[in-house]
Records
---
Amino acid sequence: MSETTTTRPAARMSWASSLRSSLGSRLRRTPRWAQFLLMVALALFCYLLPLLEPPVISTPGTDFGAVLFTVSIYVLVAVGLNIVVGYAGLLDLGYVGFYAIGAYTVGVLTSHHATWPWLLSLPAALVVTMISGVLLGWPTLRVRGDYLAIVTLGFGEIVRLTLINSEWLGDARGISSIPAPPSLPLFEIPHLDWSTGVPLVDFSDTTTFIEFGVTDPVPFYWLALTLVILVLLADKRIKNSRVGRSWEATREDEDAAELMGVPTFRFKLLAFALGAFVGGIAGSMFATRQTFINPESFTLLISILFLSAVVLGGQGNRWGAVIGAIVVAYLPERFRGFEQWRVLVFGIALMLLAIYRPQGLLPPRRTVRAQRMEEESQALEVGEADPDAELATAGPVARNPVDDAPVPPDEERSPRG
Amino acid sequence: MHFQYVFDNFASLFIGGLVFGSVYALIALGYTMVYGVLQLINFAHSEVFMFGTFATVWALWLIGADATTMGVALVLSIAFAMVASMITSGGVALLLERVAYRPLLKRGAPRLIALISAIGASFVLSEAMGLRGAIASALGLSDTLGRYVARSRENLGMPTDRTTTVQFELFGYGVTNVNIIVVVSAVLMMVAADQFIRRTRTGRGIRAVAQDPETASLMGVNSTRVIQITFLIGGMLAGAAATLYMLHIGATRYNAGFLLGVKAFTAAVLGGIGNLRGALVGGLVLGVAEGLGAGLFGNEWRHVVAFVLLILILLFRPTGLLGESLGKARA
């Protein structure tokens, strides 16, 4: 009777997940040094992107460097929010609050009330956002899942309304003339010019390495990209540590995790604080580049865009979050004529994703594996799968070492995503 | 802190708060009923309300009511606008249930996914209203629809005469006719909804599904239908609230729903989400707290008071003042 119900989800999953897992497993089967070289090449390409200005990717009408900067800020935010939403499973609708706190701390310390050097204000901003994350999390992380979403939404709005109402923070006019990071002008790098169809080195259009000016956003992009890479590396380390496993356990079943000795509250708080920290980095970078901030930049809509980046990409997968952020930030800039439809399109995308692909475009490996396991155990219950399949999906933990059941190499490696 | 101001104007702040609070309470009913039946925060309910405010204005345009309409004609046209608004909001709520929730329920999706879908639906609805001019011109209907789609991002005002007359004095505050209409009709609607849930056969079905959906369907309750009716009633109450809001405030815009929605949700949680009478109590308490808070800290902190109250309630008494229960016998 349930033949159709068991085979259909498998069929729906297949095309996307098989493509993904074949790509993923090929990547994982390549030797470590090759993986490392690939990553370095990718990073190098990202650094050179604003100078190359490739014709299809670059944005007509707006400065390509500025767009790339915006994209990298969104990537930072998405990776930070992914810690909270994806790893720890805490739906946060007020993430923009931390972003705003980061931006305003830099603004207040460097321009509005003090004249701290930029390099000193950045760590201060990060400490302040982290403290604010703990302050918000300490009381609120005790409430239930969807209530937490509403509480954080309230927090984001309180931050914004306080910024508007508080004279000390420059009320609705905001803070202006935020200084740039210290420059170190060494040499000039020319851009490429594609206007004739073939790439020509254009010596009239150069970027000074490294000078943070108002006119050239490229050095800001380089700085943001460096921060993205650092955050991604740290994210990888944390995800694969005891902390990451505790988050995962907490997200899957809080009571079971607590019983196994995971201090869930403390780890949720840590997720909040780290998420806030990354949000603070993004916010302070945003303030530095803009040199001017006001409460208008920190509305609920921005929170929702951040969230849709994470959900779109795949909660719990850092590369998913990166891709989601690129989609959310880049596509509207590339197709400027459709800018007014942006929110509508993201609303529709959120709905469609929730209904048809709640795990996102690039779901974490663990989710894919869990889903496959569930499908096969369901198939087993109806009695149409062979026992080998069960052993294969149970993975290395449950596998009997004496048993030589065929285990696909892809399953055997890396016990966690 | 303006304590002296609050003492001097206590009656006006209090009664003004009650008027706002009764609008919150009507919207809160929609949140509370859906939460009671589905354990789901219907984030897009605020947009259902927003559609009602627009339907009110459009209905008045349609029958040609303007600032010169007076007396019985005014009463009749506002009654017509309210019916139109209730139909529109009820329709939007039904559509929402069909498009954004039913597919998820069928798949047994986790609640957070349903919330994300609701957030998406909320943005789609408010943007569809904000982009109605662009949509109409894309369809080539700009000229036919004319003022209905013009200036779609701007405020839309009530076309009828909005001068109010003081009916009687209460502790030194002149109570206007609009105040009376808003509070009385809100309370009447709520009593009607409460009685419907408590006394009718359908109401019993709603309570049964709220208590235990599986057993209810085993007992022959059509749970899909019950969910639809729940959305429909919630939407119609939001539509009524929309007309009352337009009488009281007099202007709306495509994103007017959000703030009202969060406040109504606060009211629902304050009274005990899932509890119909709790929604009334919560709405009135929130309205008064907000009015007094605005007096105390200054009007620009009005919304902050509501948000802080929301956070405090969720922290200290997440079950609300009257407790969560749609399924319980006391409903």
Note: Residues 3-29 of chain A form the longest helix (27 residues).
---
Amino acid sequence: MSKKNTHRNQGKPSPAPYPAGTGGTTPDPVAGDPAFAELERLLAQGHSKPALELAKQVHKRVGTSASEVLLIKAYVARIRSLLNSGLAVEAKALLELVRQRYPSAKGALAEIGVDVATRQESLDDLLRHLNDPGLAPERRAEIETTIRRQLTDLGALAQSPVLPAEHALRDAAARLQKACEAVTTGPVEDDALALPEISRRSPLAPWKMLVRAIAAFYRPDDAACEHWLQLIDPDSAPARLAPALRAMISRHAASGLKPAASFLIAQVGGKMDALRGALQSLDAAFAIGRRKQIVPAIQNAVRACREACPDLVDRLRQHIGVYAFRADITYEQVREAMGGAPRKGAYFWRLMARQAEDPRAMACVPACTMWNEFRRHAIHEGWFAADGPEVAALYLHMADILQHVPREDLGDLQQSFRDRYSGRSYDYMDQAPSIREAARKYNEDDFYIVFPEQLYARACAIDPDPEVFMRWLEWARQGSGWKLEEEAAEAWKRALPKDSRPLLRLMELAEKRGALKKALGYLEQAESLAALNPEVRRGRLRLLVATAMRHIEQRKAHLAERDIEDLEALPQAREGDRPAFLAALRWTVCVLRSDPDGAARHLAQAADLIGSRVAVAMVTSGIADFCKLLDRVTDRYYNRNIVFDGKESLAAAVARGCALGDDLGWPLTIPPGFEKQLLDELKRTPGAMEARQLRLLAEAALRLDRRHLAFAASGAGLAKGGVTEARFLLLRGRALPEYEPERRDQCFAGAAELARRQRDMGLVDEAVECRRGHSFMGAFDPLAKGSSSMSTDQLNKVLNREKQAGEFPPFRTRKFESPFDDEPFFDEDDEDDDDEDEFDDDDVGPVTPEEFDEIMNQLNDLLGMGKRRGPRHKYRRRRPGPPGQPGPPRPPSGPGQGSLF
Amino acid sequence: MERQSTLGPHDDPREILGVATNATDEEIRAAYLKKVKEHPPERSPAAFERIRDAYEVLRDPRRRALHLLLSADPWAPLASLLADRAPERRFVGPAPWLAVLKEK
């Protein structure tokens, strides 16, 4: 401080007395001055020099007691900064100057005065005071505080000649010095660190905690280390080691460490830390993707690995090899940078196969060939046996991968693979003999790896489990033709001869293609295994129905009657609405025999049993159609006097008829003329039908590709809310037209999400399958493979939109949209939301007799004209759904579908 | 509510139980029992949960097989290769430690 300044400041008014402490409180008038705030900020950040300059300027400008308080505060900070920098002489000179210039600041300068005084003194000078029996307690406390804060050399204290040898401080310092040396040079038992002579109040107590923390660090017991670190007084000298210790515990590079701390970490961590750093740099280089950075980073990482963990070099090369493969760096470059080729064993091929499965760049065939390499090497390396469950799991996994190939492309792909694939021998050119040996060892024809049926067959041969066979069957079912399915079921039957399920499947397949005798043979085998199985019992019923209808079709009335008698003898034929179906069969036989009286009797019986004239009309017309008898059905076979009570719901009756047909394996047709009335009824009385009726109606409509009807039925179902919402949202998605791909996808995703929340995993699978099948880009659409999870908000948006959508979407071209945009879903359709308001409550009501007559007329017209609804073929009863959709739902498996109503 | 597994995507249940890749069912069970003895639930519940979850994966041959195939993560950070390696903690004597204290 210059003399000039001293004189200038002496002219300032004397400030108010300062409270003791670090500058006292700041009087309020300065609070609004931005310079004061800036000053506080500088002090808080430890910038004492600019803070002091600013404080001087402010005090010169303002000259109040408040500004002087801040100025003293800035001086104290500056003096402490000088002390910390080892400039004790300069600190003392500045302190003297401040004391002289601001005598009233004595209290504020007291603490820093002690620090300056003790720093000026040597340790011995400081300790010498402790020999004075009359030493004031305050002075003793100051000295001890200084020792706690500044002592960094235990040896100096332990050997200080100014204290008697038996002095407690000397003794404690000696013990701590010994302990410190012990914990940093080798493992130490806890007992050796008890140090009971060092109390918690001792100025050396932080050292005791530090020694224990270091011991815990080496043990290694990181929790204990942290515990002891927390007990170290943060103002004490030992606390300076805490950041370095914590950095070593966390294994993360700490920023802001001083050189000595960084040196300590490098010394203790050794080469492992260097390796970790090199790997992190390589990760960063791969993330950036610049070849110029990647290659040297590979060199560094491999070098560091060789030094720190030589046993890890092979593994590291394998991982780098995979990373580099996707980073588009030539293999030769990588190999050179790594100082050798990656070992292409099982571990390597597993990584390669997994990266090839990346949905962003799914490459099915390369992935399968890589998995095959993995299999070979894994067996060779003893990971698992050639016929172990791992191999079966692998085959199934490869078959799953191939499901990403559209079925229609699979044949071409297989042919191309046969023509072009010549193995991966080029991958082994630079490999060790042991690896090359493994690659040669299994040199069989590996073309099967792109043939799912062969993969399934191999998996089932190794692991003949029903679940595995079911996966095979499920895959086969998705293809065209029955041979693949039959092959799978036959294999299942051979492998598990006591299982009735393959027999039932074989029976169904035979039944589908009209081989009823063969089907009966399978059924009898199934009955011998599990006669009480509901599926077997239902199979007998269905097969007898099919046989009876075949005989009617063949105009063999006597055989058909015998079949019907056999049917009637079955207990399962008496359940639910099934007797009505048998009555309808008898009606058909009467038509065949030209027996109008018998026909009328059986028709009335069927109507009594099912309680619905419309349902009976649907069933009888359906059977007549299947049996090619439509041309024989005339007015005399329909009794128009069947009682119509005026309360019947057309939609409910149609749903009931559909349910009965499905139950017995004969999906019935909804006469086209019904559609308008059905749509009207669903609009007028959306809540009149039960959820299961609506579901049956929607499913029948979908089976017949009547999307408007399915749309309306699913809407009525959605309006009911509750647990069936997921099912109706799925049906809504299926009902939507092809030109609404994103809306359908949202419905499927919503259905999957709802089903997931209800833990209905079967429905989740259905929704996922629909989503995959309807995907705009087919199997390669990332949306189809992506997660179908939705937030509650998204789900509610979709649900509300579909509940409010009253009209089937009109045709329009739409640009492709992201499924979960934040934009509101389909604004255009919101205009349609009020459509339902067009109907008055008065409109709600059952079908009127006039309407019913109209319906019956349409049905009779249909029957009388002998119309054919498209070409009939043998597989009609199991008509698959539209492309990309799952086939028709299976009829209810349990008995008593009549209980649905 | 189904209990959430404590195993992460990069955890190798074989390493947790300390068994070889081709360990038999008996070896896996023996290793599990040994580990449970070392880490009983009342003393180290977290370690016990991991051991139990690892055993749950390995005891079922199909689950074990699937885990073997799908556990490899080609995109795991390379630094994670050191995740299972205990960091080196070398004894370097008191001098570098005390140097930190002297640095202000």
Note: Chain A touches chain B through 68 residues (CB under 8 Å).
